[in-house]
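Supplementary notes for students who missed Thursday's class. We covered one full example, reproduced here. Read the sequence, then the structure, then the short commentary at the end.
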Amino acid sequence: MSKKLEKVGAFPITFDRGTQEGSGIVSTYVGPAKVGKALLEVHVPAGMALRGFVVDEAKKIRAGDNEVPAQFHASRGQHIKRTVMLEEQRSIVAPKYPRNHLKLLVPLERGGFQIWEYGLVVQHARMFTVLQQTYQDICFRNKQGKVICPAFPYWEDLLSLLEEVFTGRPDVQSSVHYRPRRPEDANGIPDGQARVQWWNCVNGIGAALTHTHETAKIHWKDVHVKQRGTPRLIALQEGTMVRYQALTKPKPYGHRPSEFRLQARGVHPLEPVSS
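Structure (token representation):
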């Protein structure tokens, strides 16, 4: 019989409009990683429209934590919670992705929306909480009046959630207004360098565009930064230029092949890293 996990801490935050309008990554060092279970909790003030949800490895969405259900009170707002398990594997204590975070869907005007992630991350045996806006996009209505989102055409669970969120909203634009984004230009990127396209803190990976117009995966363990004083989360901001030592073929993720053809090794940011 497995040993019951002790509680290692509760990490509450308040998600207010000031946070919503911010940019970048907000991380906090909370101590050395140890085996146990932690509670993530997001307090959403009354009157703020927001949906909290979690996903599994197959990207199936469910509304909350089975162990700690979300709570709602009209006058006091809502509390969205998730229990995160930290277990030791190969002498490393860390939570498993995607079970280390919860997601927050914030509807905006004219079909716009943001997805934020609040999670628990372990790097070099150091534990951090991190809040990051990972997406901002727009959904539309097709000729049949159904909500569609060109950025997530095959994520059926998210499309169903967007349909619920935007039901009765007349400001959602028709799909005739959709304009595809232009591909990112790699001109001007020197050989041996790349420009960060995105970074996901709770997964610990990002993507960068190389001078050959190819996209390479970057893992946080391949990023070399100097740290002094209080430990800081290793994370790269979108648009940051980096230098890499080599491009290799990435290893498969479990039984699934990697969605990347290349992985950058020996990555050094050419700009200050702040998180």
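Commentary. Residues 9 and 263 are 35 Å apart (CA to CA). Residues 7-177 form one domain. If anything here is unclear, bring it to office hours.
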